[in-house]
Specification:
With about 400 residues, the protein is an alpha/beta fold. Helices cover about 30% and strands about 25% of the residues. Strands 1, 2, 13, 14, 15, 16, 17, 18 and 19 form a 9-stranded mixed β-sheet that branches.
Length: about 400
């Protein structure tokens, strides 16, 4: 990938006609270092958030050695890049072929499940292996999440108690519990409530628990969504975990995805047409803007006009993507210079999570060009490394 000081410099040099993914590996490393230093347990990167090789390389370089994988292809991707990595197949429902390949071909020994039927599938396809770690996914409230996930997965009540007992009897290795408080969870107390529910079920089941996995859901900053400091989230988790009915050497895990990568990529799009307050751009719901279009999230934006001369007055705009589908639309509002028009570029920030990971080739679109930039993020949940601040300041001065 070509290197630039900033997205602006990349546009000046490349004048791209396709979306530009402006990647910042130094921000991946800054987020990873914060989690590794601040969280008192193992960090399992949720690969689904962004499986780009440059992301995985930055995480590995900083010391992340555990990966939450959700498919055989993610198993293969991580194993091919890092032969000694620990794989945890945390999708609670897997087909039999995926279980077999994960275990026999890719050396995965950690499997999540939320039903007795899934437990039996894992035992069948691993040949009754005794070196398995089972992680029972529990269903917990997602009341504080921007994207709720509790409907699809998770055991509850007597179902969870039965599964914990059967999983404990089926393994000679570790037994864990996990949950997911929902994506972009804005309240640290959500983890407190979930951990207390897990404790209640553990006591009711009367089993020994070796792993407590607090899942993902750690938030990032977006316009209109300003979470509390990240330290409050991990402090709350540590406080409640210390009082749980688990073994003294019980391991604590977390599966951050969005929080590790959201800040590290912006997407630069080109304006193809303006109709009033509607900007027709060359990326959209079938590309990097799934959340902007389908769940109406607003992302930070700025105009790039290499020749300069933009109005200082701002106005609200909505976006239409390049496909022929009328659902390819993001209502925003996105605040941009009032005189923006055809031929201008827009940098859309905070798209490192679930941006390129969800892009398709519908209508023949989906192509993008990757570059690396050295500047600071639009906003950050983490104390940015001194070298990042120094670098950004140096580039700003030219």
């Amino acid at each position: 990938m070509d290197h630039f000081n900033s997205a602006h410099d990349a546009v000046v040099k490349l004048r791209p006609d396709v979306p530009l993914a402006v990647n910042r590996p130094h921000l991946i490393r800054a987020a990873a270092r914060w989690f590794l230093d601040s969280f008192e347990g193992d960090i399992l990167y949720a690969v689904k958030a962004n499986p780009s090789p440059w992301v995985l390389e930055a995480l590995w370089r900083e010391g992340v050695r555990h990966f939450d994988v959700a498919s055989v292809n993610e198993c293969k991707l991580v194993r091919d890049m890092f032969p000694t990595a620990t794989l945890a197949f945390m999708h609670p429902v897997k087909n039999r072929a995926a279980i077999a390949r994960a275990y026999h071909e890719f050396g995965c020994r950690i499997f999540a499940l939320d039903s007795v039927e899934e437990l039996q599938k894992i035992l069948d396809e691993t040949g009754g292996a005794t070196d398995l770690t089972f992680v029972v996914r529990l269903r917990v409230s997602n009341a504080d999440a921007s994207l709720k996930l509790e409907a699809k997965f998770g055991a509850i009540g007597e179902e969870a108690v039965t599964l914990l007992r059967r999983a404990r009897a089926a393994t000679q290795e570790d037994l864990g519990v996990s949950f997911h408080v929902g994506s972009q969870c804005m309240n640290p107390s959500a983890w407190r409530a979930a951990l207390r529910e897990a404790s209640r079920l553990i006591i009711q089941a009367g089993v020994t628990i070796d792993v407590v996995d607090v899942g993902g859901g750690f938030p990032s900053i977006y316009p209109g969504m300003n979470p509390p400091p990240m330290q409050l989230f991990v402090d709350e988790i540590h406080r409640v975990f210390d009082a749980m009915p688990v073994t003294m050497n019980c391991k604590l895990w977390a599966e951050p995805g969005r929080a590790l990568v959201a800040e590290a990529t912006s997407i630069v799009v080109k304006v193809d047409l303006r109709k009033g307050d509607a900007l027709y751009i060359n990326d959209g719901s079938y590309g990097n803007l799934f959340d902007a279009t389908h769940v109406n999230w607003v992302y930070p934006v700025s105009m790039i006009r290499p020749e300069g001369g933009a109005q200082s007055k701002l106005a609200d705009f909505r976006f239409y993507g390049p496909t022929c589908d009328s659902m390819d639309a993001a209502k925003g509002p996105f605040r941009l210079p009032a005189d923006i028009g055809e031929g201008d570029w827009i940098e859309i920030g905070m798209l490192g999570a679930y941006g390129v990971a969800m892009a398709t080739r519908f209508n023949g679109y989906g192509e993008s060009v990757d570059v690396i930039a050295e500047d600071a993020p639009h906003a950050s949940m983490f104390p940015v490394l001194d070298q990042v601040v120094e670098r950004a300041s140096r580039f700003a001065k030219g």
